[in-house]
């Protein structure tokens, strides 16, 4: 009998993770692999919520650097997350997993509006819930969305799936060969040392609500399952 360590999780996927090697758009093989891994844990009676970024389609920060109004650029990024969420929903439902997309910006023709109690009810009915359109406000990242939604639905942990690293390092391992991988950290360490785990708003929110975070690589098949079972993969960041 498989006994997962975590019963309710928030899976945070970057938009870049969906792009695969090409770095832009949605890679069908990658999204199919992620959907298969989500199905695997959903069938273990784990309640799964997902927050997807939009960086594979549009990054608000890039838009603002081009001279675009920051709020407008961020709203465009929120719409990109909706596209990714609908694509993931389609992949999951093709595998027979009931899925609901809830958006922070109302667009009833394509998804439900975000309602906390309704999201929790979906999870209790073993439906995968995908939270799209960020927090619905500019200037907030999808990392902050993951932290906020995890607090709201009382998730046990946030699983942060990365596509280019397998944990948290002292420096960028792709640029610095001496970078050291951490097995465990506190949010105070992350904030104090300026480690590139998630932005400071998200880190503070997780720390204040004592939400654990596991950072791991999505590129290795089965890692989501391993994280849910409590295996020692990636880096765990704890509230205290």
UniProtKB/TrEMBL annotation:
It is found in: Cytoplasm. It catalyses: UMP + ATP = UDP + ADP. One of its GO terms (molecular function) is UMP kinase activity. The keyword Transport does not apply. Its main location: cytoplasm. SUPFAM superfamilies: Carbamate kinase-like (SSF53633). Residues 7-217 form the Aspartate/glutamate/uridylate kinase domain. Allosterically activated by GTP. Inhibited by UTP. GO terms for biological process: 'de novo' CTP biosynthetic process; UDP biosynthetic process. Belongs to the UMP kinase family. Homohexamer. This is Uridylate kinase. It comes from Metabacillus mangrovi. The gene is pyrH.
């Amino acid at each position: 009998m498989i006994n997962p360590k975590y019963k309710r999780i928030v899976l945070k996927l970057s938009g870049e993770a969906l792009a695969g090697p090409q770095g832009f758009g949605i890679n069908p093989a990658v999204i199919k692999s992620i959907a298969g891994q989500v199905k695997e844990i959903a069938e273990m009676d784990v309640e799964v919520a997902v927050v997807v970024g939009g960086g594979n389609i549009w990054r608000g920060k890039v838009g603002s650097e081009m001279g675009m109004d920051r709020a407008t650029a961020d709203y465009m990024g929120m719409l990109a997350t909706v596209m990714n969420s609908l694509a993931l929903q389609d992949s999951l439902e093709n595998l027979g997993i009931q899925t609901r997309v809830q958006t922070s910006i109302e667009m009833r023709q394509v998804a439900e509006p975000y309602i906390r109690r309704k999201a929790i009810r979906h999870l209790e009915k073993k439906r995968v819930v995908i939270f799209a359109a960020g927090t619905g406000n500019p200037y907030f990242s999808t990392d902050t969305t993951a932290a906020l939604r995890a607090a709201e639905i009382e998730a046990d942990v946030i699983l942060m799936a990365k596509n280019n690293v397998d944990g948290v390092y002292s420096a960028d391992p792709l640029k610095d060969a001496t970078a050291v991988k951490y097995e465990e950290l506190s949010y105070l360490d992350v904030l104090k040392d300026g480690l590139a785990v998630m932005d400071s708003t998200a880190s503070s929110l997780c720390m204040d609500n004592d939400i654990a975070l596991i950072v791991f690589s999505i590129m290795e098949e089965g890692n989501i399952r391993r994280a849910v079972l409590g295996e020692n993969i990636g880096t765990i960041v704890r509230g205290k």
